[in-house]
Design a protein that fits this description.
Number of helices: 14
Strand order of the largest sheet: 4-10-9-8-7-5-6
CATH topology of the largest domain: Aspartate Aminotransferase, domain 2
CATH class of the largest domain: Alpha Beta
Number of domains: 2
Largest sheet: 7 strands, mixed
């Protein structure tokens, strides 16, 4: 099918690939470089999706490509038949950048797989069956991860009965406070709901783990209540609660890890160290790689043979991961992420000031969300997924790739590479400024018709 059009490739896609796998844009990618993706017809797109927060150092970074190529010539796979040098090196490197005390690693292939592994470990080590997760979270597509996921009900629909022993507490989502408090004027009543679960739903001494995204991903790019500029915010109180009851605290850093928020891991904004940390996505620039990071004393209780992975810690993926981490360090991308993130948020807030339907711009580093609503008053308003759908489409027409998120798909998430430049952000902003009034007019017209 050389030199075929998007339409021809899409026809074959529909014939041979399972339709359950959703794609966001009706083009077929052929190559990519840095912040740009190119389809089979040669069209260039500024990509602020990065494979859903995977290509943190941009598409096909030369150092990552070189490391993978060199590793392919030496060792591609040996599984658990023997030890090999690459996963040992990667595990050591991860412990060097992880929150203090997390010094032992289990490697596997995907975020959902790593979530399952973390829950299995917590149950095995504590001897407790139950797990508390949070409403709005997305943890993956495996059956156990699906039971933990409540970002949208359709992720769960048709798979019941799901694995048991899972309870859900409200996520500290200030703009849409789950307990009706005024943002910025609360006493963390949402945390009180979590504590009350121990009286009404599940005894704390039966809870093996509490699992939370330190910054919510698919559910809305939400920074937890009171943000991170406090010593007694939601995350800090959660750590104390787990310590009080002997519960393992698990942070899902799949989307917010490896520099995405301007620190290696989002937990480092809060000064809170979990017992287990789940990593994936940005770790290896697109090679299948994920893992669970914990303390050696806890990992040692997860005895030989209790879990495994045929492809976990694949040598080529490990080489790509080591190269990706090296790029972030050598190119000072954590600082660039913070600097460009501040610039991007400031410019998006200028857009917010022009449109009453833009309710909030929020984020850490280059993990940024912009939420819209239908109501024109000062409240959170009804989520306007239709507007965001049209905005994504109008930006796509102008060769900018963006993704939505949130319960009603009413939030744009901005996920540029960590080495994004000011000029690339300005180019994206110019497209958004042009597309937004067109999208708003279209959404309003559709609302009047309906």
């Amino acid at each position: 099918m050389a030199n075929s059009s998007n339409a021809e490739w899409l026809e074959s896609d529909a014939r041979y690939l399972a339709p359950t796998y959703h794609r966001c844009f009706e083009i077929v990618a052929e190559r990519a470089k840095g912040a740009y993706l190119y389809d089979v017809e040669g069209n260039e797109y500024l990509d602020f999706t990065m494979g859903i927060a995977v290509n943190n150092v941009g598409h096909c970074h030369p150092a990552v490509v070189k490391a993978a190529q060199e590793q392919v010539e030496k060792l591609i796979h040996c599984s658990a038949v023997t030890r090999h040098t690459m996963n040992i090196q990667l595990a050591e490197k991860i412990t060097q950048i992880a929150p203090t005390g997390l010094d032992c690693v289990f490697l596997n292939n995907s975020g959902g797989e790593a979530v399952d592994a973390a829950i299995k470990m917590a149950r095995f080590v504590t001897g407790r069956p139950n797990v508390i997760a949070f409403t709005g979270a997305f943890h993956g597509r495996t059956l156990l991860a699906t039971a933990l996921t409540t970002a949208k009900s359709h992720y769960r629909q048709g798979y019941e009965p799901l694995p048991s022993g899972i309870f859900h507490a409200p996520y500290p989502y200030c703009l849409r406070c789950p307990v009706g408090q005024v943002p910025g004027q609360c006493n963390l009543e949402c945390f009180d709901v979590l504590e009350s679960m121990f009286n009404h739903q599940v005894k704390p001494d039966t809870v093996g783990a509490i699992l939370i995204e330190p910054m919510m991903g698919e559910g809305g790019y939400v920074v937890p209540a009171t943000g991170y500029k406090t010593e007694n915010g939601f995350m800090q109180r959660l750590r104390k609660l787990c310590d009080q009851h002997g519960i393992m605290l698990i942070f899902d850093e799949v989307q917010c890890g490896f520099g995405r928020t301007g620190k290696w891991f989002a937990s480092q904004h809060f000064g809170v160290v979990p017992d287990l940390m789940i990593v994936a996505k940005g770790i290896a620039s697109g090679f299948p790689m994920a893992g669970v990071v914990s303390r050696k004393d806890l990992m040692d209780k997860w005895t030989v043979g209790r879990h495994g992975s045929t492809y976990g810690g694949n040598p080529v993926a490990c080489a790509a991961a080591l190269a990706s981490i090296d790029v972030i360090e050598k190119e000072n991308l954590l600082e660039n992420t913070r600097k460009m993130g501040e610039y991007f948020v400031a410019k998006l807030n200028e857009i917010k000031a022009k449109y009453s339907f833009v309710r909030e711009v929020r984020g850490l580093g280059l993990m940024i969300g912009m939420e819209v609503a239908k109501s024109s008053d000062t409240s959170a308003g009804e989520p306007d997924g239709q507007l965001i759908e049209r905005l994504v489409d109008e930006c796509f027409k102008r060769k900018l790739l963006l993704l939505d998120c949130g319960i009603k798909n009413h939030i744009i998430r901005f996920i540029p590479p960590l080495n994004v430049t000011k000029s690339e952000i300005d180019k994206a902003l110019a497209i958004i400024e042009e597309a937004l009034p067109v999208a708003a007019a279209g959404a309003k017209a559709a609302e009047l018709v309906s």
